[in-house]
Amino acid sequence: MNLFKRNKSQNPTENQSSLAELVLKNIHDGVIITDKAGVIQSMNPAAAAMTDSGNATGLDYGLVVRLESKEGRELSEAENPLIQAMKLGQPLDAFQGCLIVGQTAKRIPISVSVIPVDGLQQNRIITFRDITKELEEEGEQTEFISTASHEMRTPVATIDGYLSLCLNPQTATIDERARGYLTAAQNASKHLGKLFQDLLDVTKLDDGKIKPHFEPVEMVELIKSITDDYAIRAKEAKLTFNYGSDEPVTLGSSRRMEQVVYGFVDTSFMQEILDNLLDNAFKYTPSGGSIYVNVRGDGDRVLINVTDTGIGISADDLGHIFQKFYRADNSDTRTIGGTGLGLYLVKQRVEAMGGRVWAESAFGEGSTFYVSLPRITSDEYEKRMIAVRNQQMQEQLMRTGQVQPSALTSTGSQVLTSAPTPAPAPAPAPIQPSVSAPAPAPAPIQPSVSAPVQAPAPAPIQSQSQSAPPVTQPPTASPPSEPVSPTQPPKEINININGESK
User: Fold this and answer.
1) N or C terminus of the chain: which is more exposed, having fewer CB within 10 Å?
2) φ, ψ for residue 265 (rounded to 5)?
3) pLDDT tens-place string over residues 161-191
4) Parallel, antiparallel, or unpaired: how do β-strands 290-298 and 240-243 relate?
């Protein structure tokens, strides 16, 4: 008997399939395989346990994998990256959100990815894993980084200040050689200060200490106002800087920035996003190259792209460029400074506004960074602008002390009809003779009015004065030159929003 005889009864393909099935059954990450339409073809036990769905084969994946943002905000279809990746057949890399578990509606923080599979079936593979423990550890690291960065900024600022004094001809005299050394030291201190500031910004947004302040804007004008200064920088760097793009579709949109597109965004976040994307484009594009910025409406989304003709990004690096502290390591990038936080900050701020960011590039062929944000209609833009103006009016009136918060209507358009000063009014009332008499006094007068006129008519009046307590008539008892009717209302004072009386 040959002990080394190969067992021909076992098919190698079947063996590989069995091993793959064994791996899927025993890994801790959830794996769901769907067809092109999103119908579940298979799922491993970890996916069934995490979603509390049992055997969901034949169901739509959206019934099993329901997501919220990390902050617990409901994601619309347009801003849900999982839905967009599944619909378009695009890859999704490690999107962090909250999984809504089955009927219990328990929330589990997960990292979810999508891998489209080429072929006739065009399957999609959804993988997700529980990141609860990772977030706890990351929170501890974030707290340490935040504290350390805050404490280190002060000495770095002091160093930079003294270096500036040394380089100032009015405060110090140094030779050119020393000036070169000090200039290099100052550049290094500025770079270190930028690193600490980026670390603080990252930790504040991670901790939820920075919240986006949304406002309605016209996106084309906003992007132009932010990026106009880069035209001067491009001229100095001998680069072409344009709005719109003449490059192929793979490098950006060919439409010019002539469309009117409305969005609901944080303008300071948009400033940081574009600053980081354009800084990268300038750093990695050699002289003679081109940079394009474009904005356009894409259905219910606002699509922004920053395209350059620079050195590009390799396929190995492309999947990691939005990770914290990641920098591509090759001969072309080692001499270019950076903190490795710029694109991570971009991703943070885009996702905080309900958007998505990704890049398309090939090494040596330039890069295009896309930012997709929710779009609003012109009618919604007008409504939100009215609300913003009313809010501003209310804040202005409250700052000047002209109105309390409850004095304005929901639209903020109510006009004040009285001043905060005391009302004029009751002063003329004591002048009337009827006020000086006791309350029952008018009763005897009424019969004398309705009865026939008789000689002794004044007698009841005389008896009234006798029954009343002795009161000395004040000198002001005589009516003024212009009698004031006791029923006349106080004079109304109108005040406009500037505080001027009318």
Assistant:
1) N
2) -135, 175
3) 999 999 998 988 889 999 999 999 988 888 7
4) parallel
